[in-house]
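We treat protein structure as text, and this decision shapes the records that our systems exchange. This encoding replaces a full spatial description with a residue-level series of whole-number codes. Below, we set out a record of this kind in full and without editing:
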Amino acid sequence: MKRQLAGALRGVRSTGVVAAAAFVAREGCGYDARVRTPRAVLILALAAAGCGARAPRTSGGAAARRDGGEPPDAGAVADGGGDAGTPDRDGGQPDAGPTADAGVDGGTVAPACTGDTLDSNRNRLLQSYYEFLEAHAATPQTNGLDASNVASALDVWTKLDPSSRAVFLTLTARMQGSLLGSDSSSMLSHVTRVYRIAGGQGATATNPGSCGGGEYNRMLMSMDATLQAAQLAANRHHGARQPNGRYDISDVVPTSYWRDSHDLGGPHSPFDLSDETNAGAPRGQTQYFSDPASTRASSPLGRQDLSTLVDPYALEMDQDYDCPHNSNPLCTYTTYGPLCMLEPAEPGTQIFTDSYGSFEPDWQPQTCGR
């Protein structure tokens, strides 16, 4: 492939060409929105490599996949709002929050919130978000929700704008279909609570709001030590398959997996480590602390709606739908092809479905015991 690229690009001298050639030689035809070079150069590099226009589609889906499928042969060796509370100030792991074997406010967790399924994990985490708002959100978060205007997890869902609901549905579907290589449990089952669900900036019932924005179109959560360790391993192993024949964390489709981020912008502050999926359209990306016992991890996050929150196991996730890293599932995109190539205009929700199967857009929550 390197010889092909060298011949195709001979005589052209620019930083963009070097970046494109190096990327394609290293990554093959996988989509990556991090390389920003002239489109003609990208097309030339792709043509030399014999690349197609899109990643393969799957007939399965984020919700349906449980065993992770057969892994590919080789992995890449690569302030806002009210007070947010302080889950933990001693550098240790925060409380687990409502889980399948723990009661909700001392009660019994309903069957709708037990087990490692997309439905039960969504119900459990929506309940945890309601409880966080109830305990800590004295003023509205940017999605308009606070302790004074929601009465239950079901009420939270009803009052979230469509953009925020789409963010929740697509991110939880991606995490449910991403499995830990150690025991095939889903990433989502290791998320212990939700702190913030944000759609586009200025989103309303009829407007999805901004397509991008560093504090929007994402979720802020808390994870357990098992998921933190699995992400750290995937990062350090560069996504390579391990001796047990599995990836540290596989992706929804068997041709993808989680690895260290190639984002030139680096981790989102205050986090110091970032992972991402090898497959894009959209590409999942997480931000977290490499060492939960560090001073950085034990300091306030200083993030929108969560300025005073201290959680060494805090987790941020979004998905990049196009070349400029826009992350709103309800926006329409064109530069979601390999190396930012133009594709037919499609909403983010359709791009997700084309690549990873249904995210169950008509899902409705059930109560966890309240």
Observations:
- Strands lie at 191-198, 218-223, 258-260, 273-277, 283-288, 314-320, 332-333, 346-347.
